[in-house]
Design a protein that fits this description.
2 helices, mainly alpha, single chain
């Protein structure tokens, strides 16, 4: 299998994964819309406006850090897979030469 064929296969697989993620996101949104929401309680005076924004900032930061860590994990996995494929290709060529 040539590198071009492998790259094409990986690209098709990545596209399929992207489509699955988009479908999952659509299903989750549909579920949120179909769920009955309870009646909101009587409006109370808002307090702790700064605390709300600090909480949002912390939550966003944690989300971004988790996203960055997962991106690094994907990159490391891609490098490891590439090295593995190259080593196996080299071994295969050596076996074919000796036969």
């Amino acid at each position: 299998m040539s590198d071009l064929e492998k790259a094409a296969r990986d690209a098709v697989e990545a596209q399929a994964n992207s489509e699955q993620l988009a479908l999952i996101a659509a299903v989750l949104q549909a579920q949120q819309f179909t769920q009955q929401r309870p009646a909101p309680p009587a409006a109370a005076p808002s307090s702790g406006g700064a605390a709300k924004w600090i909480g949002i900032g912390l939550g966003g930061s944690i989300f971004l850090i988790a996203f960055a860590v997962s991106a690094v994990a994907v990159a490391i996995s891609a490098v490891a897979l590439t090295v593995c494929v190259l080593v196996l290709r080299s071994v295969w060529q050596d076996i074919r030469k000796s036969s």
